[in-house]
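Thread: Modeling a multi-component assembly for a lab meeting

Hi all, long-time lurker, first post. My supervisor asked me to bring a structural picture of a complex we are working on to next week's group meeting, and I have zero experience with this. I have the sequence lines for every component (695 residues in total). Could someone generate the structure of the whole assembly? Inputs are pasted exactly as I received them:
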Amino acid sequence: MSFTLILEQSLNGLQFGLMLFLLAAGLTLVFGIMDMINLAHGSLYMIGAFLAATLVQATGSFTLGVLLAIPAAAVVGMALEITILRTLYARDHLSQVLATFALILIINEVVRMIWGSDMPLSAPEALSGPVQLVPGMPYSAYRLLIIGVGLAVAVLLYFVVTKTRIGMLVRAGASNREMALAMGVNIKRLFTLVFGFGAALCAIAGAMLGPIFAVQVGMGENILILAFVVIVIGGIGSIRGALVGSILVGMVDTMGRAFMPALLREVLTPAFASAAGPAIASILIYVLMAGVLFWRPQGLFPARG
Amino acid sequence: MRKPLAAAVAATSLLLAGGACAADKLKIGFISTLSGPSASIGVDIRDAFTLAIKLNGGKLGGLPVQLEIGDDQFKPEVGKQLAEKYVRLDKVDILTGIVFSNIMLAAVPEAFNAKIPYVSPNAAPSPLAGKQCNPWFFAASWPNDAFHEAAGKHASDKGYKSTYLIAPNYQAGKDSLAGFKRFYKGKIAEEVYTKLGQLDYSAELAQVRAAKPDALYIFLPGGMGINFIKQFVGAGLSKDIQLITPGFGSDQDIIRGVGEPMLGLFDTSHWALDIDNPTNKKFVAEFEKEYKRLPAVFAAQSYDTALMIDAAVKSLKGKVEDKEALRKALKGAKFESTHGPFKLNTNQYPIQNYYLRVVGKDAQGRIVNKTLATIFKDHGDAYVQDCPMK
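Re: Modeling a multi-component assembly
Sure thing. I ran the full set together rather than chain by chain. Output:
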C-alpha cells in the first residue's frame, strides 16, 4: 500500500464528502430550524443538475451555466416552499414524510416531461484530463475543481452562519425556534430564505457532480439517503456537524471500498474475502451511523444544548 | 364420377384444415425495460422489433401481427405480472422482448407452463443453457458468457500478462468474469465486484492505478459503463492500461453518452455495423432512416428475433395454433440473420462467430465499432453437455 495510493484515495474521499456536505447543509438547516423532514431535498439536487445541464448547453460555457443554475434552483426551491411545503410545518413528521415522498414522485415525472429521462453534461474540455499532483500520481483535474468549490462553499457558509445577522437568526432558529419567534424574528421569511439557500447548495452539488455521475431522473434518491446519514451522524441542525459528518462518510465509504477486500484477505480465506469484502464495504457507513447513535444519540455536534 | 368426387373431398378437407388451423393473426407479447436508466437498451430492442414487422408489411410469416408491448420498469415482479397478463388473458402465441436475465427468469415460467415459446432477444443465462434447459426457450442473441469468453481469448492472444477485472456484485457480473477467466491464460491482477448501479468509480480507479495491470476488463452495462469510461479517461489511466469491454459495453448507446474518449477501445461481439451481408445492410440502413440513430448490438439481436419468428411461422404456413408444431418450427427456423446464417445448438442457444471490434471513426466521421478479426468460429457454450434435450 503505497503513499500515493493512500493520498489519492483520501482526495477521493474528501471530494465525495464535500459534495455530500452541500446537500447535507441544506437538509440539516431545514430539518433543524423548521423541524420539517423534507424528502424532496434530493429532487432539488436533481432539478439543479437539469437546470445546469440546460443552461450550460444554452450559454455554451460551463462556468456561466452553473452560476446561472444556482439562483434558478433557489427560485424553484422558494416557490416550492411558499406554495406547498409551508402548509406542512404544523403537521407531524409522518404527514411530512408522506407529502414530500409524493413530491419526489411528482417532481420526477415533471422533470421527465420537461427534459426527458436524462441530459448530457460534461466537464469543461480543459479539465477533462488528469493533472500531475505529485510525481507518479496523475489526478482528475475536474475532481480537484470539485474539492476547491466544496472547500470555498464550506468557508463561505461558515462565514455567513457565524459572522452575519442572517446567520445569527439561522442559529437562533436552530437552537430554539420558539424563543427566536418570541424575540420577534420573522420566522416565515427566514424559512423561505433558508429553503432557497438549501436549494442553491443542492444546485451546486448537482451541477458539480453531474459530469461525474449522470444527470438523470431519480438521481436524487440515492444520494438523499447518504445526506440523511450525514445529518444523523453530525447532529441535526448543526452546520459544523454536517461538515464533519460528510467528510467522515465520504472517507469511510471510499476507504471501505478501496481497502476492505484487501484487509479481509489478510485474515480470511480469499474466496470468503472476495464475497464479503464488497458487502461489508457497502454497509460500513451505516455501521458508523449505528455506532454514533449508540454512543451519542444526539449526533457528534448537537445544535440544541 | 369418382375422380371429381375425390377432388371435391380433398378440396373440402383442405379447406376445413385451412379453416381450422390457419390463424388470422399472430399475437406477440413483448415485455421490455422501457423506463429508467437502462431504458436505452429496451428502446433499441423494441424499435428494431417493430421495424422488422414494419418492413414486412405489418406481418410476420405471412400473418398480420398484433403486438402487445409492456414496460417491466426494470423490476422482476412487474415483468412477471406482464407475462401472466399476456399468457392468460391475451393468449399470445409467442412471448419475447425482455432485456435483463433476472427479470426474464422471473417471467418465463409463465410461458413454459402454458407451453408458449419464449424467444429471447437478449438475456440468455447459463442455467437455461445447461441442466435446466427448456424446450420452450429460444435464444436469438448469444449465451450470457460468450462475449466475455471471447474477450478472455483476445486478452490471451494479445499477450496481456495481467488483467484487472471489474463487474457489479450480482449473478450476471460473476458469470461474466467466470466466462472471461475460462479463456484467459494470464494472471488476474485483481477481481473487484462493485455495487450494482454504482456511478462513481474513483476508489476503484485508484486501486487499478496502483495494481499496474496490462489490461482492464469491465462488465458495466448502461449508465455504469458510461460513467466508468469517462472517469477512467479523466483519471489519466487510458494511456497506460488497455481497456477491454464486452460488445454491449461500448456500443452506440454508450458511445452517445461518452463520445470521443471511447476511441481506440477494444470489445467483442457477434455482430457489428459493418458485417457484410444483405440482411445487415438493409437493417442498419432502415434503422437509421427510421430512428435517426445507429443501432446498438441489442437492436440487431431483436431484429434477428423477429426474423426467426417470421421464418418459423412461414414454414407452418400460418398455422400457429399447434404449439408443438410452432416449437419445432422455431427450432428448425432457417434464415439469414444480421450476422449470417442462423444456427441453433441442441439447447436452443445459437452457435455463431464472435469478433474483435475497435471503436473508431467511419467514413462520415461518426464514432462506431469496426470489426477487426474473428476470435471464435462457430462457438457454442460451455453448458450444452448438461442439457438433456437432443
